UniProtKB/TrEMBL annotation:
GO terms assigned for molecular function: FMN binding; oxidoreductase activity, acting on the CH-NH group of donors, NAD or NADP as acceptor
Obligatory cofactor(s): FMN
Domain Flavin reductase like span(s) in chain numbering: 19-172
Record-stated family: Belongs to the flavoredoxin family.
Organism: Verticiella sediminum
Family annotation (InterPro entries): Flavin_Rdtase-like_dom, Split_barrel_FMN-bd
Domain of life (superkingdom): Bacteria
Protein name as annotated: Flavin reductase family protein
Keywords, ordered alphabetically: Flavoprotein, FMN
Amino acid sequence: MYFNLSELDGRSTYKLMTSTIVPRPIAWVVTLDREGRRNAAPFSFFGLLSGDPPLLCIGVGARAGAAKDTGINLREGGEFVVNLVSRNLLDAMNVTAIDFGPEVDELEMAGLRTEASVHVRPPRIADSPVAFECRVEQVLNIAANRWLILGVPLAAHIRDDAVLSAEKCYIDSGRLELVGRMRGGDGGGYSLQDHLVELPALTRSQWEAGKGRR
């Protein structure tokens, strides 16, 4: 089926893209507002853009045309923590996605413990298996109250039992049991790491010898 995206409304384009660009990692973003109040919210418009130098991106949309608290805090505060979501934290993450007002602490509502960060003011979620302390590098305006946030990770906190070698920075990704977003909108589709497939990278000579055929 052919879809001409330029002829579709934004909602339809959104539905097509979020249903097909999957699974998407979830950035569980913790920020502080100008009064020091905590905010936590999940974003699946999120990705790693560069490893050296490290750079990640978060797409922060609007809610009913108004700016989201996270977007305002990122623009004004310049610091944030990206926590990754494991399957045992899925319900808590869902609570923080509720449209609370800026005066409400989503971390408290979800019963989440926090620990102080080392380089930034916002705390990290203590039970998250991975957390990146980040500094806002650039804010790109893409539409009214919609921004792309480029962030530089300054530090990583990774659960000890998933670290195979701290010296070599080898991590057992499967042990983290991270979840991914499978669609957008009000749908509750998520992927779980129940089945991983190992597929070694091929050299050209291996491919020519037919070793990469399944």
